[in-house]
Amino acid sequence: MIIAITNQKGGVGKTTTAINLAVYLGKLGKKVLLVDLDPQSNLTSGIGFISDDDSVNPIYQGLSKSIYDILVGKASIKEVFVLTKYENVHLVPASIDLAGAEVELVNAMSRETILKSALDEIKDEYDFVFIDCPPSLGLLTVNALVASSKVFIPVQCEYFALEGLGQLINTINLIKKRLNSTLEIGGVIMTMYDVRTNLSKQVGDELQKFFGEKLFKTIVPRNVRLSEAPSYGKAIIEYDPKSQGALAYEGLAKEVVKLKKW
Ligand code: ADP
Ligand code: MG
């Protein structure tokens, strides 16, 4: 099952969800591959690969190849993926040169299906492959949507949460029509939910109305421990497994496993 974690808005919890959902699924015994498709490489660093922060072009310790090499045809997934410190979780890391890939690939043959072809080689070895998308609907995200059968959409329960969702759904429908007929919205995840505000509740109600049973029951609260963990290169299971954020992602992982009858 290949799942794109997408929302063209930045800062809604895509990367946080990718890391923590994957790690809890791994703990439940599922084999998971994380694909970092964002040039900012937050997933790669957030899961524990250390970079030389002073560099404009950070080199991650222990990593020599990245998703960029796959997209430009210089390497296969098998040559690029690495183990993480978390049980059952593997990673295809990103690097800053990915920022140039969209431009470099403009004239490439079958440029929308490169990631799909690459993942075809290994997808049967995993229960879940999660693709952490960049905050845009450009060629990288199109590659993710073409490669996936489901889309998970994290929505930040704040002002303007629903803004842009229409455009995302149009893009999903277009890809479904033209390039990947099996693509479906697998689930919508409420993130950074603040129980103290009416606003979060309002956003939740709207999402419920619009997405119905596609809305995950598990709500990810705003939780400062979740925001601190990535700067230590730790998933929440390691940083603070008793925090509300940890409990939420553990719950989400269980919900996702149940859904797998899909
Ligand atoms: P995206 O990948 O969509 O850009 P991130 O997962 O990187 O979003 O989250 C954006 C910022 O918000 C990060 O600094 C992250 O640590 C923080 N964050 C994410 N989820 C939560 C949460 N539930 N509570 C508090 N902070 C969060
Ligand atoms: Mg991100």
Write up what this structure looks like.
The chain is built from twelve helices and eight strands. With 262 residues, it is of the alpha/beta class. The protein has an eight-stranded mixed beta sheet with strand order 3-4-2-5-1-6-7-8, with helices on both faces. It binds adenosine-5'-diphosphate and magnesium ion. Magnesium ion (MG) binds next to helix 1.
Task: Present the secondary structure layout.
Elements: E1 2-5, H1 14-27, E2 32-36, H2 42-46, H3 67-71, H4 77-80, E3 82-83, E4 89-92, H5 98-104, H6 114-120, E5 128-132, H7 139-147, E6 150-156, H8 165-178, E7 184-193, H9 198-211, E8 215-221, H10 224-228, H11 236-239, H12 244-259
Parallel strand pairs: 1-5, 1-6, 2-4, 2-5, 6-7, 7-8
Antiparallel strand pairs: 3-4
Bound molecules: adenosine-5'-diphosphate (ADP) and magnesium ion.
Features:
262 residues; alpha/beta; 8-stranded mixed β-sheet; 12 helices; 40% helix; globular; binds adenosine-5'-diphosphate; binds magnesium ion
Strands ordered across the widest β-sheet: 3-4-2-5-1-6-7-8
Q: What amount of the residues lies in strands?
A: 15-25%
What small-molecule ligands were found? adenosine-5'-diphosphate, magnesium ion
Distance between the termini: 10 Å
List the secondary-structure elements in sequence, H or E: EHEHHHEEHHEHEHEHEHHH
Helix content: 25-40%
Précis, in short:
40% of the residues lie in helices and 17% in strands.
